[in-house]
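Can anyone check this?
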Amino acid sequence: MKRTQSLTLIALTLAGGLLVSARALADETNSAASKDQWTVPLGGGIGKIQWFGKLPINFQIQAFDNVVTPNNGPDWQLRFQVQFLFPK
């Protein structure tokens, strides 16, 4: 199985650790039938870096509409991320 991905990301950091982002990720699976090879989600979300004592944690939530999707593929996606950051 051969797989190809292309990512476009735009992120803007605002005051107070707030983050606004937009993302397009095209994903092709070459082993599928030609009409079922591509998934193209477009969307974006918000996030915030929150400090807990000396430990910063990055919280993000993003929603995507799959503008191109295989037959029986999902119409949308929701992504929630919690990322622990360990600065030096």
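Reply from J.R.: I decoded it. The beta strands are 3-13, 18-29, 38-52, 55-68, 76-84.
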